[in-house]
């Protein structure tokens, strides 16, 4: 049965596209963008009343949340995720929670909400400053944990590298400086063929205003 992945145009939607390209899994891409009205159609709302992308459909399974989709794909197709119960899996989970909360939701997304999307969410200069400071503080944990290692978890590319690179791309787009080691890590992963093909697809559409 063909997998269907809904969504494109953003640093969150590239995550599952990249995972599918790494795994070499065929799928149908329904490239709808945020704030285009396409997440509010009856067809899409029947899948997710969150009205947010990405969404994966695999038979009867409708799965939301970019990190959950990447992890599901890794587990299902045998790559990108360490074995359940291993130390590596504990580290995978630790990194995933850290990236989603400390680099995505609490900091970069706050900058997005009250920066580019201030017309929707309102101006909040103090929250913006706290988010900038918070990102600079939290990213130090990633720097220290990663060191000069090529991969975040163990000695293989994993879903964590997808999530982390997507946030580092986002941070660079927002003008954050990264340590030389983090910048080298980001550049290396952006050179992967699967990143390039996924990015070409994901960014072939643009978000709405
Ligand atoms: N925590 C979710 C966040 C999903 C999310 O916020 N998606 C945004 C695009 S990055 C969206 O679809 N917004 C819908 C809209 O604004 O129309 C994830 O990681 O998948």
Characterize the structure shown.
A hairpin with a 2-residue loop joins strand 3 and strand 4. This protein has 2 domains: 3-80 and 195-202, Glutaredoxin (3-Layer(aba) Sandwich); 87-192, Glutathione S-transferase Yfyf (Class Pi), Chain A, domain 2 (Up-down Bundle). It is built from 9 helices and 4 strands, in the order βαβαββααααααα. By secondary structure, the protein is an alpha+beta fold. Helix 1 packs parallel to helix 3, helix 4 (87-114) runs antiparallel to helix 6 (125-146) and helix 7 (159-173) packs across helix 8. It starts with a strand and ends in a 7-residue tail after the last helix. It has helices at residues 14-23, 42-47, 66-77, 87-114, 118-121, 125-146, 159-173, 180-190, 193-202, and strands at 3-6, 27-30, 55-58, 61-64. Helix content is 56%, strand content 8%. The chain has a 4-stranded mixed beta sheet, with helices on one face.
CATH C-level class of the largest domain: Mainly Alpha
Average pLDDT works out at 97
User: How many domains in all?
Assistant: 2
Q: How would a crystallographer describe the biggest sheet?
A: 4 strands, mixed
Q: List unreliable stretches of 5+ residues.
A: none
Q: In percent, how much strand structure appears in the residues?
A: 5-15%
Distance between the termini: 35 Å
Helical region count?
Answer: 9
The strand count comes to: 4
Coarse structural class: alpha+beta
What is the global morphology?
globular
CATH architecture tag of the largest domain:
Up-down Bundle
**Radius of gyration, taken over Cα atoms and rounded to an integer in Å:** 17 Å
CATH fold descriptor of the largest domain: Glutathione S-transferase Yfyf (Class Pi), Chain A, domain 2
Strand order of the largest sheet: 2-1-3-4
List the ligand species: glutathione
Proportion of helical residues:
55-70%
Give the H and E element order: EHEHEEHHHHHHH
């Amino acid at each position: 049965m063909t997998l269907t992945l809904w969504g494109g145009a953003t640093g969150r939607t590239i995550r599952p596209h990249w995972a599918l390209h790494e795994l070499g899994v065929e799928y149908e891409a329904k490239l709808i963008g945020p704030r285009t009205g396409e997440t509010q159609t009856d067809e899409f709302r029947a899948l997710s009343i969150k009205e947010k992308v990405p969404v994966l459909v695999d038979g009867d399974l409708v799965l939301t949340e970019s990190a959950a989709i990447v992890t599901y794909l890794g587990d299902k197709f045998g790559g990108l995720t360490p074995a359940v119960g291993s130390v590596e899996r504990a580290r995978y989970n630790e990194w995933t929670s850290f990236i989603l909360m400390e680099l995505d939701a609490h900091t970069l997304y706050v900058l997005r909400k009250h920066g580019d999307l201030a017309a929707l969410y309102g101006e909040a200069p103090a929250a913006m400053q706290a988010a900038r400071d918070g990102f600079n503080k939290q990213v130090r944990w990633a720097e220290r944990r990663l060191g000069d290692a090529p991969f975040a978890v163990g000695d293989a590319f994993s879903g964590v590298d997808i999530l982390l690179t997507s946030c580092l791309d986002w941070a660079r787009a927002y003008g954050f400086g990264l340590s030389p080691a983090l910048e080298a890590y980001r550049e290396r992963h952006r050179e992967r063929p699967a990143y390039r093909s996924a990015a070409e697809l994901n960014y072939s559409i643009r978000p709405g205003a």
